[in-house]
Amino acid sequence: MTSFWSRRRWLSALGTAAAGAAWPGRAAAQDHTPRHERQLEIAGPWEMSGLALAQSGHLYQKLQVVETLLDASSVGQPAPGLAATWSRSADGLRWQFELRPGARFHDGQRVRAADVVAALKAAQQAPGALSQAPVAGLRVLASEEGREALEIQLHRPHATLPSLLAHFSTAVLAPGSWAADGRTLVRILGSGPYRITHLAPPQRLEVAWFSEAGEEGRAVRPPPEVRRVGYLAVGRAETRALMAASGQADLVFALDPASLAKWRRQTSPDRLASVTVPRVMALKLNAAAPWLSDVKVRQALSLAIDRDGIARAVLRDPALAATQLLPPTLPDWHDPALPPLAFNLEQADALLRAAGWHRSGDGRQWRDSTGQPVSLTLRTFPDRPELPIVATALQEQWRQLGVPVRVAIGNSGDIPLGHRDGSLQIALMARNYASTPDVTASLWQDFRPGGHDWGAMGWQSPEVAQALAALSSGQGADRAAEWRRQVVQALQRELPVIPVAWYRQHVAVSPRVQRPVLDPLERSYRLTALRWTDSAPNSGTDSRTAV
């Protein structure tokens, strides 16, 4: 087998290969455009696959175009959104919300409680966050000038309801967003501080500040410094890195690790913004598939992963090697006493033998208990540039174990499709466990009986289901720590998904803007808080200098 140091050198070379071409610089010409007329340019890997909230709502939310009934603080606590205030009955079955006075859609119409009720009913019936909630009914409590209120009734208490109401799939759109049939979405008219001025799916989206001015003409919101924003979906990581270096974009998300290392070396520290996020690079396994149904096989595949090598050579950050599913930055869901996921090929070999597998005649490949040669397919996608690189690293590491794996790089939609039609074997993904601010809701979605597109497949655990149901109901709060520990331990033992690495969000920042404070939940670009610098290069310059 390849030695430890040979393996490290191979991983290092693989990470370096993503560096791309030399980076051009940019001249320091001054931008004399008035601040309120400047347009901020953002580049990211996420395309708009359609108008619907389920497809592109995350982008509308990040760009502050749409609003949800509730928002979330940086630590996931409920915060005002369209609802200025809310309350819950003593039995936990009725939640009442009063809307923000003066709230208006981008077509100038007042946001009414009936619009919110209609949006939530649609979200409840569609696959998504709110479909998890035991909603018994929704009704308007008040709809009059100066006061709009509604109520949500539940069949049973559901403590994570505020978190579900903050998910982008529950965003509220104006009635004018739909065609005359009331079913076809033809435009996005939200109520956020920015309105869409240009939409060209799948790549381009432009927004402008919306004052939310009432009938009397007074602006409800104070004007932000950044009033015009363009977003461009750029699939290739190398292209995004060049856009950052040449000044063609002011904020560039999802730099590949090699470009990130170069950016750090060749720019000042205030040109990079970073934050640890509750996103995990993990392997989703079809536990119902013949070769993956035995937990010993899943444990063996995990033991064959050199997480430290991947974190160092590919991600360039050894602290990101995952020892369990969720990172220490989520202390409620991270158990420091849990034995960490380890790298041990000898133990992996022994587990495969215990599962009834045996080596072929030349010893290079495993055969299952029926004598069939084992071969697996791993699917991933390039939206996050590190995924294909890590997939190739995993392919090599499992080859050393004697398990051949074919890597298939396609679209992110291939993974949920493969889940639904049962064709998926293994997928490498980047799962955001704070897609709803309360991690409990995301874990229930992923590991409830029946699983989820981005969660468990062909696997279920009554122990996990019971614990997550108890946490979701809000009952037995005195046992919450015990329930969480039970879930974490079961996931570490059963491995329906195999954690590989944790994440930090890194954003390249141009000299035109001050370094932003990033949202650790990745819900918003926080455009209203961005500030221009007093002295900034002109993004239109053709001058180039070597970095």
Structure description:
The protein has helices spanning 4-16, 53-62, 113-125, 161-164, 237-246, 257-266, 295-303, 307-313, 345-354, 386-401, 414-421, 439-447, 462-473, 480-494; strands spanning 39-44, 70-72, 78-80, 83-88, 94-99, 135-144, 147-154, 194-200, 204-209, 228-233, 251-253, 272-285, 358-359, 366-367, 376-380, 405-409, 426-432, 497-509. The chain is α+β, with helices and mostly antiparallel strands and 547 residues long. The relative contact order is 0.17. Mean pLDDT is 88; it is low at 1-8, 13-29, 214-218 and 535-547.
Residue windows where pLDDT falls under 50 for at least 5 positions:
1-8, 13-29, 214-218, 535-547
Q: Proportion of β residues?
A: 15-25%
- Rounded to an integer in angstroms, the radius of gyration calculated over CA atoms is 25 Å
**CATH second-level architecture of the largest domain:** Roll
What is the CA–CA distance across the termini? Answer: 41 Å
The main β sheet shows up as: 10 strands, mixed
Tell me the number of helical segments per DSSP (H or I, 4 or more residues long).
14
CATH class (first level) name of the largest domain: Alpha Beta
Mean of residue pLDDT values? 88
Helix content: 25-40%
Strand order, biggest sheet? 8-9-10-1-11-18-12-17-15-16
Structural class: alpha+beta
CATH superfamily of the largest domain: Dipeptide-binding Protein, Domain 3
Number of separate domains:
3
CATH topology of the largest domain: Dipeptide-binding Protein, domain 3
What overall form do the CA principal axes indicate? globular
User: What's the total number of strands?
Assistant: 18
